[in-house]
Amino acid sequence: MSDLSTSHAGSARGVASASVPRHVALVMDGNGRWARQRYMPRFFGHKQGVDALVRAVNAFADRGVEYLTVFAFSSENWKRPSEEVSGLMSLVLVAVSKYLTKLAGDGVRIRIVGDRETVSDKLRKAWEHAESLTQHNQRITLSVAFNYGGRWDVVQACRRAIELGVKPEDVDEAWLARNMALSFAPDPDLFIRTGGEMRISNFLLWQAAYSELFFTECLWPDFGEAEIDAALNAYAQRDRRFGMIRPNQVVAEGA
User: Fold this and answer.
1) Residues sharing a CB contact under 8 Å with residue 94, sequence separation 6 or more, in sequence order
2) Residues 2, 14 contacting (CB under 8 angstroms)
3) pLDDT by residue (tens digit) across 217-232?
């Protein structure tokens, strides 16, 4: 591993600055189980999860991460019990009211990615307000994937090509990438999932093609600075080749 100097913002808490990912994708799993372990309603776990997210945004920013994309509500989450879905929608509005000023003051830019057509006007306006208020912030970009699915993302990009009359031969990877929900950000370098499950659950299917994967048993409300550093240090040790072979490997193998 590289030198663990703490003289750089990206190397705070012992994370190697040269190997800090620009973009981290995060599946915040385990809220319901966290609450159940404490004999509390699932909604209480989701509430604690929002608090954990606000702490995590600043912790990642302190370590030099430029983009953080979190899976807040998937296309499939509509299948959950109606009272839980309704509670989650209300929680978003409460979270915006409670934390928006703080996040804006901390230099966080907020962007919402996902299908906005099926959410309430009240929720959509709250998102637009959050995006507008923070649009000039540059410390870290927090993208909240809400009513999002990786397959939906690919489909909406393809539909856009059809609507625009783009010729089939002009629809290549570069064109699709420019029309995906996260076209404003580089692809995630590191993909973290909490809660012990080892799957990506239809999150950023296109963008995570070459992401390094990190799974932890830690339930999301308990995910703090120690867990963040464990993930970032694991990433710093990965050898990312993107399907290529390094020149020194060729020499070594031919020797």
Assistant:
1) none
2) no
3) 999 999 999 999 999 9
Question: Mean pLDDT in each 10-residue stretch from start to end of the chain (255 residues)?
Answer: 37 59 97 95 91 96 98 79 79 88 97 90 92 97 95 96 96 96 97 97 96 98 97 93 66 55
- Superfamily, domain 21-149+189-237: Decaprenyl diphosphate synthase-like (3.40.1180.10)
33: number of Cβ within 10 Å:
16
Q: What residues are labeled active site?
A: 29, 77
